Amino acid sequence: MLSRSGWGRRQDLVEDLWATKVHDWLLANVVRKSAHAEVLRQTWFADPDPVVANAGWALTVDRVAKRPEGLDLPSLLDGIEASMKAAPDRLQWAMNHCLTQLGIDHAEHRARALAIGERLRVLEDYPTPPNCTSPYAPCGSPSWSGAGRADTSPRQPGQGLPAVEIVGR
């Protein structure tokens, strides 16, 4: 039987999970499609609240992948390098996603993105099932360099990831 105090902790966990799913759904299905997405991205990006900043970084990942024109990619890498290691979990995840997207879609920043991922080692120990790609940025390196992927044709930003086979894992 659950004690009242045990139930409270479980209820908090469920509420946190629910809030995360609603947050992610709202970003993906409403905010990203909004005419105000860029203004919100800029406003939320540096917000002191990590949940709000996470939303800004998530919108930035979308820009890096689909519409990088006008973004200062070296400054994004500077910010990731300076802040990602100590960031709260959800914000760290979004920054890591941005780092990976930069390395995949922008060959001119690939070496630096990979070096940052290897040095910071964020999400290195994240449990990853067999035949799945780890969120640890350097594990995505075959897709960044073209080694180990079936489609080696050049990709344009926003094309999405090719099928990746990571050899040696």
TrEMBL record:
Name recorded for this polypeptide: DNA alkylation repair protein
Top-level taxon: Bacteria
Region described as Disordered: spans on this chain: 131-169
Native source species: Pseudonocardia ailaonensis
InterPro entries, per the entry: ARM-type_fold, DNA_alkylation
